[in-house]
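Final report, closing paragraph on structural work. Over the funding period we assembled a curated collection of sequence-structure pairs, and we close with a single example.
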Amino acid sequence: MRSLPLPLALTARLTPVAVLALAGWAMASSPDTSPAARDDTPEKTGTTSASAPSSTAVPKTYAAAPAPCGAVAAKTVTSLVPGAKAAGKEIPSTDAEVRRTCSWNALKGYDYRWLDVSYEVTDSDDAAEKYYKQRVAEKDGGGEVPGLGDAAYSVVNLTTEDDQKTREGTVVVRAANALVIITYNGSDFESKDAPSTDTINKGAIKAAKEAVAALQDTGA
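Its predicted structure, as stored:
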């Protein structure tokens, strides 16, 4: 079988760390550092009335991000990314307590597939909702995914570089104070075409459902 040079954009994607060079993701997914989120209210002294409102912080549903490489079943990985190792590769994080990502990618024959599963844990449900809305606004053209988390959105886009088409799906899910973000894409280097929108969308949603279930298990 003859080897084919990979388009520049996809060559970069074969380096797992490069895929996290999405600066918008890293910045938008930073934990809320506002005074309200840090509970920087000055300490009060003296006697407090029994009728005064409690300043006790609302407990977070999820305190830490679960292991992302175990979030998707092995059979799902082999189905979505043929030829990839089921174990995946976790991407180094500046704060693994709140932000973790696992990647799988493989080229089998002429078919290339890539899957990312990311978790982001924020300080509150309100903060998670804010970041969820930001991500949805950045990826217009998709639609809601009913019955997944507290809110979920899916979008699929097609790009072309050097006559090679790549179709990528993104699913963003909010579950309480956490976000689950799935990225799934593929190309066919022989036909220069890409998998269908339906194939990519269904694959991304399937991975999202399993990743959300893994998150919910940690908060049970």
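The radius of gyration is 20 Å. The beta strands are 89-91, 99-108, 111-121, 143-144, 151-161, 164-175, 178-188. We thank the funder for supporting this effort.
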